C-alpha cells in the first residue's frame, strides 16, 4: 500500500513540470499535517523545490540553465487562486506585461482584495497590496493592465508613442470590457480608452 507521500508524488507527477504546488491542493484529501510532512520530505528528496513558505515547484530542468522558474505573475496568480482573491499587476510589472518596458521588476506589486503581505521568491519579492474593490473591478485583463500602466507613467509624462502602443494592445480587448473599465479609470485614462471605442464603432 502506498504511503501518503507517494500518493501525493504520483498526483504531482501526473501534471506538467514547471507547475506550482500548494499544500491546499492536497489538504482536504490527506489532512494538513500529512500534507505538510509529505511536501517537506519530497522537497528534501529533491523532487520538489520550495519557492517560499507554503509554495513549492515541480521543477522543469534545463541542462545548461538548471531549474527553470515560472515568472512572478504565474506564482502570484496561483497564490491568489488558492486564497480566492483577485489581483492586478501594478507599476513596472504592468508596463512590462504590456510591452512598454523591458525592465523586469525585482519586486512585483499586485493590488488585491485578499490579505496584504510580501512573499520572497529567491531574490525577488511579490507584494500584495490591499486595494479598494473599484481598483479590482476591471473586467478586461488588458484594459485593467492599461489603467495601471498609465497610472504608473502619469498624465504629464505619458508620451504619444506609449499611448499608441497601449491602444494597439487594447485592440485585442473586448469592446464591452473597455466600455465597462473606462468608467473605473481617472478621466484622462478614460479619454484614452474612449478614443479606442470610437475606433471600434466608427
UniProtKB/TrEMBL annotation:
Top-rank taxon, per record: Bacteria
InterPro entries: DUF6088
Name assigned to this protein: Transcriptional regulator, AbiEi antitoxin, Type IV TA system
The organism of origin for this protein: Polaribacter cellanae
Amino acid at each position: 500500500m502506498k504511503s501518503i507521500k507517494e500518493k501525493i508524488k504520483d498526483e504531482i507527477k501526473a501534471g506538467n513540470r514547471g507547475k506550482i504546488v500548494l499544500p491546499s491542493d492536497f489538504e482536504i484529501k490527506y489532512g494538513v499535517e500529512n500534507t505538510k510532512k509529505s511536501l517537506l520530505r519530497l522537497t528534501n528528496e529533491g523532487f520538489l523545490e520550495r519557492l517560499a513558505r507554503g509554495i513549492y515547484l515541480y521543477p522543469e530542468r534545463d541542462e545548461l540553465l538548471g531549474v527553470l522558474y515560472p515568472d512572478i505573475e504565474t506564482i502570484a496568480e496561483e497564490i491568489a487562486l488558492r486564497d480566492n482573491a483577485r489581483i492586478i499587476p501594478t507599476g513596472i510589472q504592468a508596463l512590462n506585461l504590456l510591452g512598454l518596458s523591458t525592465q523586469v521588476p525585482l519586486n512585483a506589486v499586485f493590488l488585491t482584495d485578499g490579505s496584504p503581505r510580501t512573499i520572497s521568491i529567491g531574490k525577488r519579492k511579490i507584494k500584495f497590496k490591499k486595494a479598494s474593490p473599484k481598483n479590482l473591478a476591471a473586467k478586461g485583463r488588458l484594459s485593467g493592465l492599461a489603467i495601471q500602466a498609465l497610472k504608473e507613467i502619469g498624465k504629464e509624462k505619458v508620451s504619444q508613442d506609449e499611448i499608441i502602443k497601449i491602444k494597439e494592445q487594447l485592440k485585442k480587448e473586448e469592446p464591452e470590457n473597455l466600455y465597462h473599465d473606462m468608467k473605473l479609470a481617472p478621466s484622462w485614462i478614460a479619454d484614452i480608452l474612449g478614443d479606442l471605442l470610437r475606433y471600434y464603432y466608427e
